[in-house]
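Why should sequence recovery work at all? Because a backbone constrains its sequence more than one might expect. Tight turns favour small or flexible residues, buried strands favour hydrophobic ones, and helices have their own preferences. The token representation captures these environments compactly. In the example below, the structure is given first.
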């Protein structure tokens, strides 16, 4: 008496144990630490939204926040062919105003239970943010994206994208609503 081939295959498949992939859950909080969070601030609604997310993470992990404002150097074209002119006094003034605004933001929006510091740098935003992250040894950068697409993205680039590509620590990007 002949057996059909399909029945034989079916029987051998049932005998084999089914293997499943399992992941072990995190055993303790020591598996993932966030002690210092860097939040670049440009005082836009987007960056304030990123700050709210960072506040939540800081409270959850017991982390400190470091807010950073970057003053981008302003270069003005000069008349009469003398080349480009940089006005450092404008940058200094923007930096001073930025520092005051950051201190006000810390006082108004960050609870006293969360340690917060601030800083101001001058330069290209993505480079200065990455340098600050390295110098402060941060564990996470929380940065807002402005949602530029198409021509705007080509012209202005994406600071958040450059940070994500070059950061040595994890980066959380917060999209616009």
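From this structural description, the recovered sequence reads:
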């Amino acid at each position: 008496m002949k057996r059909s081939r399909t029945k034989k295959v079916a029987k051998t498949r049932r005998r084999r144990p089914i293997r499943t992939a399992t992941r072990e859950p995190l055993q303790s909080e020591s598996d993932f630490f966030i002690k210092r969070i860097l939040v670049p601030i440009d005082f836009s609604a987007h960056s304030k939204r990123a700050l709210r997310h960072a506040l939540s993470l800081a409270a959850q992990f017991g982390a400190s926040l470091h807010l950073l404002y970057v003053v981008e150097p302003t270069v003005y074209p000069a008349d009469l062919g003398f080349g480009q002119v940089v006005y450092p006094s404008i940058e200094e003034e923007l930096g001073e105003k930025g520092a005051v605004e950051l201190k006000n933001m810390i006082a108004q929006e960050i609870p006293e239970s969360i340690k917060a510091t601030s800083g101001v740098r001058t330069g290209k935003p993505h480079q200065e943010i990455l340098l600050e992250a390295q110098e402060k040894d941060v564990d996470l950068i929380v940065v807002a994206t402005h949602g530029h697409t198409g021509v705007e993205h080509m012209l202005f680039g994406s600071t958040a994208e450059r940070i994500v590509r070059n950061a040595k620590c994890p980066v959380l990007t917060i999209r616009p609503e």
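A few observations help interpret the result. The longest strand covers residues 64-71.
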